[in-house]
UniProtKB/TrEMBL annotation:
Lineage, top ranks: Eukaryota, Fungi, Dikarya, Ascomycota, Taphrinomycotina
Database matches in Pfam families: QCR10 (PF09796)
UniProt entry keywords in alphabetical sequence: Membrane, Transmembrane, Transmembrane helix
Signal peptide segment: none
GO biological process, one term: mitochondrial electron transport, ubiquinol to cytochrome c
Entry GO terms, CC: mitochondrion
InterPro entries xref list: Cytochrome_b-c1_su10_fun (IPR019182)
Species in which this protein is naturally found: Schizosaccharomyces osmophilus
Name assigned to this protein: Ubiquinol-cytochrome-c reductase complex, Reiske ISP-associated subunit Qcr10
Primary gene name: qcr10
Keyword Membrane attributed: yes
Chain ranges passing through the membrane: 12-33, 59-77
Amino acid sequence: MGEGNRNEREERFAIPLSLFSFQNWFAMVPFFFNKPLYRVQPHVSFITPERTAKTIPAISRWTLAAGAAVFLFAMQVPKVKSTILQPIAFLGDHFKDKTPEEDKWL
C-alpha cells in the first residue's frame, strides 16, 4: 500500500529547517500578521496622477513646438510685427519695414 517505508515518507514531506531560521521567519512576519493595505488611486476617469506626471514632459514639448510654429508663421502678419515683435529691445529693428514707399505695391 505505501511506497517506501515510514522514514522515507517523513523525509519527503518534511519542512526544511532553513525555513524556520530567524532571518526567514522575520521576513515572513509582516505577510502573516499584517494585511496588505490596498488603496484606490485618486483618478478622474482613467487619468491618474502617475499618468499625468509621465505625460507632462511630452505635452510641454509638443506645446512648445506648436507655439514656435505658430509664431514662425505669424511673423509675417503686419499686426504681429508692429505690436509684438518691434517692441522687443534688441530684435525690434530687424522687424521694422525699411522698404521705400515707391517699392510697396500692396
